[in-house]
């Protein structure tokens, strides 16, 4: 059973999410929050598998709430739900530790599959969409490290040459299938490399690995 917390300042939106989720045999809603402060408190109390997190809420917004949940060490994963006109905030949410994002007008089956994917440890945002998102909002990236050698970043220094190569193409939006085909590797081998990359770099999921590739300039913004 996947436990879900709904964080949204609109009561009707929360009601709609609850009705959808509780119609599923494998999901249950453990609470609702009308702002980020309530969401952080309810996560500490109920330890849900997934939080559906709105971005714009009164007081503590969804981005800062996400950051606090992730830095607390909670096992809870955050799925940000936003609207098309708020996409510029999605990048900040991903950097805060969210495992993905969806738009509020997504089809019900897309939301349900997104929750299941996040609960199982996967990222919701497709690699190609992640790349477009980061390219579009590259001004949010930290300043380039100047003459600091790439290997000085301990997260990158811990990788083998092959792992660094795979992290680079992950940042470029390649799927596991594309990596296997272009680098002449078995897809199972690619999955093993990706798992090791996530573990060595401390990345919660593939999205965080993409952000790392940008931050360390393994991938240069277009």
Briefly summarize what is shown.
With 222 residues, the protein is of the alpha/beta class.
Query: How much helicity do the residues have?
Result: 40-55%
Shape field: globular
CATH superfamily of the largest domain: Response regulator
The helix tally amounts to: 11
Cα separation of the termini: 42 Å
Main sheet characteristics? 5 strands, parallel
Question: What does the average pLDDT come to?
Answer: 84
- In CATH, the topology of the largest domain is named Rossmann fold
- Which second-level CATH architecture of the largest domain applies? 3-Layer(aba) Sandwich
**What structural class do you assign from the helix and strand content?**
alpha/beta
Protein name: DNA-binding response regulator
InterPro entries: CheY-like_superfamily, NreC/VraR/RcsB-like_REC, Sig_transdc_resp-reg_C-effctor, Sig_transdc_resp-reg_receiver, Tscrpt_reg_LuxR_C, WalR-like
Keywords: DNA-binding, Phosphoprotein, Transcription, Transcription regulation
Modified residues (4-aspartylphosphate): 54
Characterization of the model:
- This protein folds into two domains: 1-137, Response regulator (Rossmann fold, 3-Layer(aba) Sandwich), CATH 3.40.50.2300; 152-214, Arc Repressor Mutant, subunit A (Orthogonal Bundle).
- It has helices at 11-21, 36-46, 62-71, 87-95, 108-119, 127-136, 154-157, 161-171, 176-183, 187-201, 206-215, and strands at residues 2-7, 27-33, 50-54, 77-82, 100-103.
- The longest helix is centred in the last third of the chain and has 15 residues, at 187-201.
- It is 50% helix and 13% strand.
- The protein is globular and about 50 Å long.
- Helix 2 (36-46) packs parallel to helix 3 (62-71) and helix 9 (176-183) packs across helix 10.
- The protein starts with a strand and ends in a 7-residue tail after the last helix.
- It has a five-stranded parallel β-sheet with strand order 2-1-3-4-5, sandwiched between helices.
- The mean pLDDT is 84.
- It has 222 residues and is α/β, with parallel strands linked by helices.
- The protein contains eleven helices and five strands; from the N terminus they run E-H-E-H-E-H-E-H-E-H-H-H-H-H-H-H.
- This is DNA-binding response regulator.
- InterPro entries: CheY-like_superfamily (IPR011006), NreC/VraR/RcsB-like_REC (IPR058245), Sig_transdc_resp-reg_C-effctor (IPR016032), Sig_transdc_resp-reg_receiver (IPR001789), Tscrpt_reg_LuxR_C (IPR000792), WalR-like (IPR039420).
- Pfam families: GerE, Response_reg.
- Residues 152-217 form the HTH luxR-type domain.
- Residues 3-119 form the Response regulatory domain.
């Amino acid at each position: 059973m996947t436990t879900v917390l709904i964080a949204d300042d609109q009561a009707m939106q929360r009601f709609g999410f609850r009705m959808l989720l509780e119609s599923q045999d494998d999901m249950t809603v453990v609470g609702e929050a009308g702002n980020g402060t309530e969401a952080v408190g309810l996560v500490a109390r109920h330890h849900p598998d997934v939080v559906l997190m709105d971005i714009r809420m009164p007081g503590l917004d969804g981005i800062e709430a996400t950051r606090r949940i992730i830095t607390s060490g909670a096992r809870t994963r955050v799925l940000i739900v936003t609207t098309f006109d708020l996409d510029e905030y999605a990048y900040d949410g991903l950097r805060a530790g969210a495992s993905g994002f969806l738009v509020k007008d997504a089809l019900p089956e897309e939301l349900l599959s997104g929750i299941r994917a996040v609960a199982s440890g996967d990222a919701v945002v497709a690699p190609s969409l992640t790349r477009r998102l980061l390219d579009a909002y590259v001004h949010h990236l930290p300043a380039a490290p100047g003459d600091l050698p790439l290997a000085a970043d301990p997260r990158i220094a811990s990788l083998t040459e092959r792992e660094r190569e795979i992290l680079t193409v992950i940042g470029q939006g390649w799927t596991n299938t594309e990596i296997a085909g272009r680098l002449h590797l078995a897809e199972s081998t690619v999955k093993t490399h990706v798992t090791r990359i996530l573990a060595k770099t401390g990345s919660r999921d593939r999205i965080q690995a993409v952000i790392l590739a940008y931050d360390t300039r393994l991938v240069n913004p277009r």
